[in-house]
Write a structure and sequence with these properties.
290 residues, alpha/beta, TIM Barrel, 32% helix
């Protein structure tokens, strides 16, 4: 059976206090509260800097059983190093404590800048280097260097699958070869919805779908209308049943995805500036629970 997770990107936003969060809720309890309203959250602080092991452990403790985090991988790898000489940065990321999320660790999101063009060899090597389970990630983490100032628990633990998704923002990725590469490596192409000129491709490339909803009228701000949410709900139902609707949006490849009986779907609303994200997430989830 396909699993559906609908949530938000981040949870600590001052404008949400008194609107999504109760007025008198202490800030330290915001994750506890949000994780009882939604069943998944995308951690984005990890994009800007390596988080400390204690933070990962507290996020695990503050959320209920069955909760899942997506984790945005470091921009140092994607934006600064731009995938070149990233063996140690990858090891440092996994050593920093992300594996402390244990079974609550969901997909890892790799977002690339608008000025990074598609380079087949570079992306092929990078995708091949990504760990596909927690044991592989632990082996990689043990190769960290001194730049990992705080290191999590790297002792053996129960193994579980790791999934990866890529969000692209340059037109050169609208390329059938890129879609074929993602399918070969079983990495999901992010279905990104945004009021921008970024490519918004709906090619299905992995065994799951990863969605990021940035605002379809105003980037990071506008909410989704009932009609828009109805349309996204229809698409999600098709994806969860293993299909792909004829009007799914632009695709870079004419080749259909490998056949599947079902696909898990992870959807994150990132239109947080006007306090739209948590309410849009809950409205979309209600449509799919009906």
């Amino acid at each position: 059976m396909a699993r559906l997770r609908i949530g938000i990107s981040g949870w600590r936003y001052a404008p949400w206090r008194g609107r999504f969060y109760p007025q008198d809720l202490p800030q330290r309890l915001e994750l506890h509260y949000a994780s009882r309203q939604l069943d998944t959250i995308e951690i984005n602080g990890s994009f800007y800097s390596l988080q400390r092991p204690d933070s990962w452990r507290s996020w695990y403790r503050d959320t209920p059983p069955g909760f899942v985090f997506a984790v945005k991988a470091p921009r140092f790898i994607t934006h600064v190093r731009r995938l070149r000489e990233v063996d140690k940065p990858l090891a440092n990321f996994f050593a920093s404590g992300v594996l402390e999320l244990r079974q609550k660790l969901g997909p890892l999101l790799w977002q690339f800048p608008p000025n990074l063009k598609y380079d087949h060899g570079l992306f092929d090597a990078f995708l091949a280097s990504l760990p596909r389970d927690s044991q592989s990630a632990l082996r990689l983490a043990r190769q960290h260097d001194h730049h990992a100032r705080y290191v999590g628990d790297l002792s053996p633990r129960r193994n579980h699958r790791l999934r990866h998704a890529i969000e692209i923002r340059h037109d050169s990725f609208s390329n059938p070869a890129f879609i074929a590469l993602l399918r070969r490596h079983r990495v999901a192409l992010v279905v990104s919805d945004a009021a921008t000129t970024w490519p918004q491709l709906h090619d299905l490339t992995g065994g799951f779908v990863y969605m990021r909803m940035h605002g379809d009228q105003v980037l990071y701000s506008s909410g989704y209308s009932d009609a828009a949410l109805d349309e996204w709900a229809r698409r999600i139902r098709a994806w969860m049943s293993g299909g792909q609707s004829a009007d799914d949006g632009h695709r870079a490849s004419s080749m259909p995805p490998p056949p599947r009986k079902s696909r898990d779907v992870y959807c994150y609303f990132d239109n947080d500036a006007k306090v739209k994200a948590p309410f849009d997430a809950m409205k979309l989830r209600r449509r799919l629970q009906a």
